[in-house]
């Protein structure tokens, strides 16, 4: 009875669009069909009703609906909405170029899941030379909204198992893993409410984009195999992006929580929670020979960082054949850090470059106008009593770095130590050289 009623509603709704070809299992519902939209869960959302497109869902984890998805995106483009329904799974098994978007909404209430066919994805993807990144799909264009209570699932387990023991930044590594969500040439893209689960590699990467915002998102990556944990599943990375906002978001992954990369400006982070991460980092930048990189104008407020390697971190590369640049005008305010190895750290010898090479070829990335205000909690004690480590490269300028209301303790003993080497001017609190720490 109920099915018949819905079918009748569809018949009525679709009849007005008789000229529009609709693929099997799909429907296009005009915005005025409030009752149909309500039944589908698409009415009464945050945004006003729109022409809404539905597509068939997958029967199992290999039932690839990527052709239907692409069809649905095209039908919803220019003012409509693609609805991916609650309790339904949509499996993507082919790479998708979605860079033609203009005024579209995607309501993700179900699960959008990628296949874990490693051979296929390693032969078919979009490649970015920056840190040899690949992705399943790319989103671009303008005025794009993705919202709902559903899940974007990277199906990462097979990738975690296969990558086990390898290292992403190893120059010889050729085992590339896809990024879960990537924008390129996107202007005005927002993502709200969804969960991003088990990305094979970085969770989000924004390339050459403007005004990207995430609100109320949950990012999680876990492995069911103790000998192959997720790696490099960063929450947020960016390259050449102006305008990046992340608010009310929770992240539990084993790498950077939030880490804008070269040429990111106007960054806003508020109410972020990070568990088990490598921290909220600016960078790394200055990795590539001869290139100027910058990160500028960031305001980071009310962040909780638990059980991590780092809390608030600024990072740049040193060594032969690296670049140069600046990290400028960054504020970290109201940051709660617990059980974290390096609660506040300026690292200009990033990654596995050894100390001698960093000393021979010091970083040429400047750090200027940096505020750390109201930073409180505890370290893990791994770096003994050191809770803040600001060590500037001799080949760079670190100036106007101001600390205030710092209340960090170490389980390794007190008083906690704040290291400042090579920083120009007064940092606002008492500090010591790394030579005189107790470690
Ligand atoms: C998955 O569903 C597709 C489409 O119905 C079907 O052809 C295929 O045999 C199914 N595969 C498995 C493993 O059940
Ligand atoms: C767990 O990961 C290891 C390392 O990749 C692999 O050898 C092993 O087969 C995996 N175990 C399972 C149950 O997949
Ligand atoms: C993005 O824009 C740049 C510059 O206009 C262009 O070179 C590049 O091909 C575009 N990328 C895509 C995926 O359209
Ligand atoms: C700070 O962020 C947490 C989430 O991590 C949130 O619960 C809390 O309400 C926020 N505090 C303020 C003052 O907004
Ligand atoms: C944070 O991570 C720890 C493991 O390090 C875990 O035991 C704990 O449940 C997590 N906290 C929450 C609130 O998920
Ligand atoms: C960053 O911007 C500078 C200056 O516009 C440019 O020279 C450099 O190539 C950019 N860096 C990257 C990694 O794109
Ligand atoms: C510093 O960045 C903030 C955004 O966080 C911006 O409002 C302010 O204008 C910037 N200051 C300067 C001097 O550029
Ligand atoms: C770093 O600071 C030095 C000294 O002020 C300056 O000459 C250089 O141009 C700065 N580098 C960048 C990339 O801003
Ligand atoms: C630390 O001590 C060594 C050896 O005495 C010295 O060469 C170096 O300049 C000192 N470093 C700082 C930052 O004071």
TrEMBL record:
Enzyme Commission no: 3.2.1.67
Reactions catalysed according to its record: [(1->4)-alpha-D-galacturonosyl](n) + H2O = alpha-D-galacturonate + [(1->4)-alpha-D-galacturonosyl](n-1)
Molecular-function GO terms, alphabetical: galacturan 1,4-alpha-galacturonidase activity; polygalacturonase activity
Subcellular location: Secreted
Signal peptide bounds: 1-16
EC category name: hydrolase
Keywords tagged on the record: Cell wall biogenesis/degradation, Disulfide bond, Glycoprotein, Glycosidase, Hydrolase, Repeat, Secreted, Signal
A Pfam entry, by short name: Glyco_hydro_28
Disulfide bond is among the record's keywords: yes
GO terms for cellular component: extracellular region
BP GO terms, sorted: carbohydrate metabolic process; cell wall organization
Domain of life: Eukaryota
Task performed by this protein: Specific in hydrolyzing the terminal glycosidic bond of polygalacturonic acid and oligogalacturonates.
Family: Belongs to the glycosyl hydrolase 28 family.
Protein name: galacturonan 1,4-alpha-galacturonidase
The species this protein was found in: Penicillium steckii
């Amino acid at each position: 009875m109920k099915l018949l009623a819905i079918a009748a509603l569809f018949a009525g709704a679709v009849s007005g669009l008789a000229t529009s070809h609709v693929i099997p299992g799909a429907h296009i519902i005009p915005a005025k069909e409030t009752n149909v939209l309500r039944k589908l869960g698409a009415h009464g959302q945050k945004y006003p009703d729109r022409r809404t497109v539905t597509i068939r869902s997958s029967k199992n984890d290999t039932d690839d609906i990527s052709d239907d998805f692409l069809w649905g995106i095209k039908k919803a483009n220019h003012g409509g909405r693609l609805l991916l329904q609650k309790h339904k799974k949509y499996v993507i098994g082919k790479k998708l170029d979605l860079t033609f978007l203009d005024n579209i909404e995607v309501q993700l209430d179900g699960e959008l899941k990628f296949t874990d066919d490693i051979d296929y994805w390693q032969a078919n993807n979009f490649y970015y030379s920056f840190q040899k990144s690949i992705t399943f799909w790319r989103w671009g264009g303008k005025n794009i909204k993705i919202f709902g209570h559903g899940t974007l699932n990277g199906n990462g387990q097979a990738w975690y198992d296969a990558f086990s023991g390898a290292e992403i930044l190893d120059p010889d590594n050729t085992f590339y893993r896809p990024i879960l969500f990537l924008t390129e040439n996107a202007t005005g893209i927002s993502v709200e409410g969804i969960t991003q689960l088990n990305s094979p590699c970085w969770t989000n990467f924004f390339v050459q984009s403007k005004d990207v915002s995430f609100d109320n998102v949950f990012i999680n990556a876990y492995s069911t195999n103790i000998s192959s944990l997720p790696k490099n599943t960063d929450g947020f990375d960016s390259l050449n992006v102006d305008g990046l906002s992340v608010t009310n978001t929770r992240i539990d992954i084993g790498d950077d929580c939030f880490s804008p990369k070269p040429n990111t400006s106007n960054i806003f982070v508020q109410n972020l929670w990070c568990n088990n991460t490598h921290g909220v980092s600016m960078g790394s930048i200055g990795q590539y020979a001869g290139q100027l990189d910058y990160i500028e104008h960031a305001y980071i407020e009310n962040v909780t960082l638990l059980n991590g390697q780092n809390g608030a971190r600024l990072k740049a590369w040193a060594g032969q054949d690296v670049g140069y640049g600046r990290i400028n005008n960054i504020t970290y305010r109201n940051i709660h850090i617990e059980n974290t190895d390096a609660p506040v750290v300026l690292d200009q010898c990033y990654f596995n470059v050894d100390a001698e090479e960093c000393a021979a070829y010091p970083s040429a990335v400047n750090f200027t106008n940096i505020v750390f205000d109201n930073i409180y909690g505890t370290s893990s004690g791994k770096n003994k009593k050191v809770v803040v480590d600001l060590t500037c490269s001799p080949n760079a300028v670190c100036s106007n770095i101001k600390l205030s209301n710092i209340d960090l303790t170490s389980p390794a003993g007190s008083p906690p130590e704040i290291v400042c080497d090579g920083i120009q001017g007064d940092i606002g609190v008492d500090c010591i050289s790394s030579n005189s720490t107790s470690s």
